[in-house]
Specification:
Blueprint lengths: L2 H15 L4 H8 L3 H8 L7 H10 L4 H4 L6
């Protein structure tokens, strides 16, 4: 699994645990729903600014979304 795929899986798991849809997460993070979908599929190399937005929207630390990533 690539780092972008692992990050996306972490975002999806957290979002689903909170019972949020991709659209709801996108609204909370002030990002587009299609962007969230592509993040979750591992298609995006997400900027630090957007990692922070997503983490805030998911009520977690950015580090929580980076768990399991291998260099």
């Amino acid at each position: 699994m690539t780092v972008t795929e692992q990050f996306g899986a972490n975002v999806r798991a957290r979002r689903e645990n909170l019972g949020l849809s991709q659209a709801e997460l996108a609204d909370l993070a002030t990002l587009d729903r299609t962007y969230i979908g592509s993040v979750e599929r591992g298609e995006r190399n997400v900027s630090l600014n957007n990692i922070v937005k997503i983490a805030k929207a998911l009520n977690c630390l950015p580090a929580d979304l980076l768990k399991g990533l291998r260099c």
